[in-house]
Design a protein that fits this description.
Elements (H helix, E strand, L loop, with lengths): L3 E10 L5 H18 L7 E8 L8 H10 L4 E5 L10 E10 L9 E2 L13
Helix pairs in contact: 1-2
Length: 122
């Protein structure tokens, strides 16, 4: 199979709205997304980060740059503040070149964020 552009989703819950907590959780998620999908940073085209409105102390993209994604286009946005939704969540949509079929992509939801996608085998 040739290389295709794939979208890879991920999410994690941050312990508290502290820059170090956001950075650590974001970097852990990025590493897991790369590892589980047999990718390197060179395979990544771009990354969109969202965070819930209660996370305002740091940009997840800054943590990504510090983890080796400095040459990758990155952007942050705020999640829609839906009443009753999970708090302190960083979500990622990564676009990457991969030789995997769509059905073989491993979307990564860590810790409490696994509850966001009960349909995925985690």
């Amino acid at each position: 199979m040739s290389l295709m552009v794939r979208g890879i989703r991920g999410a994690t819950v941050v312990a508290s709205d502290q820059p170090l907590e956001i950075a650590t959780a974001t970097q852990e998620l990025l590493v897991a997304m790369l590892s589980r999908n047999a990718l390197s940073v060179d395979d990544v085209i771009s990354v969109l980060f969202t965070s819930t409105p209660d996370l305002v102390s740091a940009f997840p993209a800054s943590a990504a740059r510090d983890a080796g994604f400095a040459g990758v286009p990155l952007i942050c946005s705020q999640e829609i503040p839906v009443p009753g939704s999970m708090a302190r969540v960083v979500r990622i949509l990564m676009h990457a070149y991969s030789d995997r079929a769509k059905s073989e992509i491993d979307h990564v939801y860590l810790g409490e964020a696994q509850a966001l996608r009960k349909d995925l085998d985690q």
